[in-house]
């Protein structure tokens, strides 16, 4: 019974973070080529607060809803979105959330651990996002882009804002983790007292 409640709680939180990511997609800061939004912050918070598996699941839910045609991506929605060069960043959010959550839970959730795990997730987002961008531009939509401009527009122009979001998000997660984890801590205490 208690396991089912916890699973339902996690599913509700996954849906909440999928919705939060959708809202984050519409908070845009104008940057050429790749739209800069608050999606990275939302997906990283999902990893930090829900853990790797559930954080990635929330991002996968967000992506699935967008591909089904709900216009929740930064530039619309629909199955055709997979042919947009920036779609790789959405896939990167899923991997980044997973890695962030896994690394953050490997010990005490200190600000430093959260920050480092956020940077690892950020690296995954940009690595996957830029690789996808390059492949789609050069081999699918026949709009060639060299590595230099790709690196400049898809990394250097956008990453400073995301680095700032890592610092801010790690502080926010540090404050929210005790609130979300309170129930889990109480359950562990009760189990320890009864054994």
Automatic annotation (TrEMBL):
Membrane topology: Multi-pass membrane protein
Cross-referenced InterPro entries: BioY, PLipase_C_Pinositol-sp_Y
Keywords assigned: Cell membrane, Membrane, Transmembrane, Transmembrane helix, Transport
GO MF term (any one): biotin transmembrane transporter activity
Source species, domain of life: Bacteria
Pfam families, sorted: BioY (PF02632)
Primary location: membrane
Any single GO CC term annotated in Swiss-Prot or TrEMBL for this entry: plasma membrane
Residues annotated as domain PI-PLC Y-box: 48-87
Subcellular locations according to the entry: Cell membrane
Transmembrane segments: 59-81, 87-104, 111-135, 150-173
Gene Ontology biological-process annotations: intracellular signal transduction; lipid metabolic process
Keyword Lipid biosynthesis: no
The keyword Transmembrane belongs to this UniProt entry's keyword annotation: yes
UniProt-listed PANTHER family: BIOTIN TRANSPORTER BIOY
Annotated family: Belongs to the BioY family.
Name the record gives this protein: Biotin transporter
Organism name: Guopingia tenuis
